[in-house]
Design brief:
single chain; alpha/beta; Nucleotidyltransferase, domain 5; three-stranded antiparallel β-sheet; globular; P-loop_NTPase; Terminase
């Protein structure tokens, strides 16, 4: 049984009326069970090991483990890397789940267990640093209780999502506990914790992101609007490229849904992205695993994707680590000379080093996303529906436990980083923001009528 932090492991499973010492007291008294430190030993040779794995490097403590049943308490507290490693330690040759256990799970929880082990059982609330990868792996696009066989790269096991809501817990007074949940604050957070709603990100750093406010249909920006790009480097971890346009206060009708919109003057719109994340043979994302492309290959990919566009390279910003030299050319230089036929030809994308002041950058990004505290209720940052990985990874980002003004960098924060670079390259002041013009769209019948009334 794993919990991320040792102190939480002890509090949740060794202390209180629900802890193992109380739960197993009759067996301890009869001599059938011994509890020695973090290990529970049964008379028949079975054992329960209480384990913790706070950091990714700690996973190697379990390199030689043979795990028959893997129990994880609060899965979203772990990274995908830790979970995959522990899952890889699961093996139980020749062992079966007893029929009584299969019957118990079916009758008690409506869950059909395979008669074979190893078996992994994970419980979690929405939120925390693993929210994004857990949601993508277990919940997105999956019917509740549906059992599916995963690909070899995803462990090759059967997988099932079992929803859990307040009324499903037989050990609490639902009415009393609901009142405590209501005291959490926002209705979104209450819904996430009460109903297990994974579309709500509990404890998110950017708690002001809303799809109805920030998500736009795909569109082609007007040619005269300023376009630029932002870039966060990664090889073993994903890289992230975002293409942005600076909106002008005019009516445009180049959206996929055909609607005419006027965006706030100076608003940033992320209209395209390229996210270098690894996928398995079934197209499933391997969260936070990069493509390991060279700087030259990334440079060629950027130029191919923006062919025919006019990009303002003076405004474009990239990860400052791109300019580090370690006994050879920097990645920024390699990206510039990305022509495979002529390594001396300068033909790749140009960037300026981004301002990498993290706390200030996140605040600038938060300010652009803000909409509740402004007169017209309009944010100054939008992201189109095409930017799947932005929507997958940015809303779940959490605060750093030790630095609340920063984001937990153990999470998949690469699209967030490139967005931060874009915002720092073009800071906005709410005081200086021009009000969005009101009235009907130009050359509509309502507009023509209004012009006539002016004489």
């Amino acid at each position: 049984m794993f919990r991320r932090i040792y102190e939480d492991l002890i509090k949740n499973h060794m202390e209180g009326t629900g802890g193992f010492p109380v739960m197993l007291a009759p067996l301890v008294q009869s001599g059938h069970v011994k509890i020695v430190d973090d290990e529970i030993r049964f008379w028949n040779g079975s054992r329960i090991f209480l384990c913790h794995c706070q950091l990714e490097k700690h996973r190697f403590k379990y390199q030689g483990a043979e795990i028959h049943v893997l129990l994880i308490d609060e899965l979203t507290m772990f990274t995908s890397t830790i979970y995959r490693f522990l899952r890889g330690r699961m093996r139980a040759p020749g062992l079966d789940i007893p029929q009584w256990a299969i019957d118990f799970f079916r009758e008690k929880f409506g869950v059909n267990l395979s008669a074979k082990i190893p078996l992994a059982l994970s419980g979690s609330n929405p939120g925390n640093l693993g929210h994004g990868w857990v949601k993508a792996a277990f919940i997105d696009g999956v019917a509740e209780f549906a059992i599916r066989r995963m690909s070899p790269s995803e462990g090759g096991m059967l997988r099932q999502y079992i929803p859990a809501r307040l009324e499903d817990n037989p050990h609490i007074d639902a009415a009393e506990y609901e009142g405590k949940l209501a005291g959490l604050g926002t209705k979104e957070l209450v819904r996430a914790m009460r109903d297990g709603d994974w579309s709500i990100v509990a404890g998110a750093f950017f708690d002001n992101i809303r799809e109805d406010k920030h998500k736009l249909p795909s569109f082609t920006p007007p040619a005269h609007w300023t376009r630029f790009r932002s870039f966060d480097w990664g090889s073993a971890k994903p890289f992230s490229v975002g293409w942005w346009v600076v909106a002008e206060a005019e009516w445009v009708k180049t959206f996929k849904d055909g609607k005419e919109r006027m965006l706030p003057q100076g608003a940033l719109v992320r209209y395209r992205e390229w996210y270098g994340v690894k996928r398995d043979e079934d197209g499933q994302i391997k969260a936070n695993e990069g493509l390991r492309l060279s700087a030259e290959a990334v440079g060629r990919g950027i130029m191919e994707r923006e062919r025919g566009e006019k990009i303002d390279e003076a405004m474009s910003r990239a990860d400052p680590s791109m300019w580090k030299e370690d006994g050879g050319a920097s990645n920024a230089e390699k990206m510039l000379k990305c022509d495979a036929r002529d390594p001396n030809k300068i033909c790749g994308p140009r960037f300026a080093p981004a301002d990498n002041t993290r706390a200030l950058g996140w605040q600038e990004m938060y300010s652009r996303l803000a909409w509740e505290d402004v007169d017209d209720g309009e944010p100054m940052l939008f992201v189109t529906e095409d930017c799947y990985d932005w929507w997958r990874t940015v809303p779940p980002l959490q605060h750093d436990e030790n630095k609340p003004e920063d984001i937990n960098s153990d999470m998949e924060d690469h699209a967030g980083d490139d967005t931060r670079y874009a915002c720092m390259g073009r800071p906005v002041s709410r005081v200086q923001k021009p009000r969005t013009p009101t009235g009907p769209a130009p050359w509509t019948m309502d507009w023509i009528t209004s012009q006539g009334s002016r004489g």
